[in-house]
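User: Fold this; tokens only.

Assistant: Input:
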Amino acid sequence: MTERITITNEDRRRLGTMLRFAMALGSERREHMHALEAELERADAADSDNVPHDVVTMNSTFKVRDLDTGEVEVYTLVYPGRADVSLNRVSVFAPVGTAILGCRVGDVVRVPVPSGETQLLLEEILFQPERGLL
């Protein structure tokens, strides 16, 4: 796990609101929500203009390498209502989404999977909304 992560103030606000609403409704994904809540609590927040270009923010498109298999994937981190596996849009409420939020290029994140855990290397940010095309 990465020591410190960075998120935008706007992402922290929106995600906090979403978490409170989802928990109040008694969602089945409570474990994932608690993990996201913990990530938000440990994150450094910054104005959008001050977020480094190599950080995954909401709606960022990024490339990761599975260190166990060598497989490379490109994903976009989205809010739950926009998630779509067929378009490689992963929800921030999903384990990989929670793990990658706020990470920087070069970070290795551990993601729980049905068979245990996998490690993903964040290789590249292809698009970050705070910076536009990179």
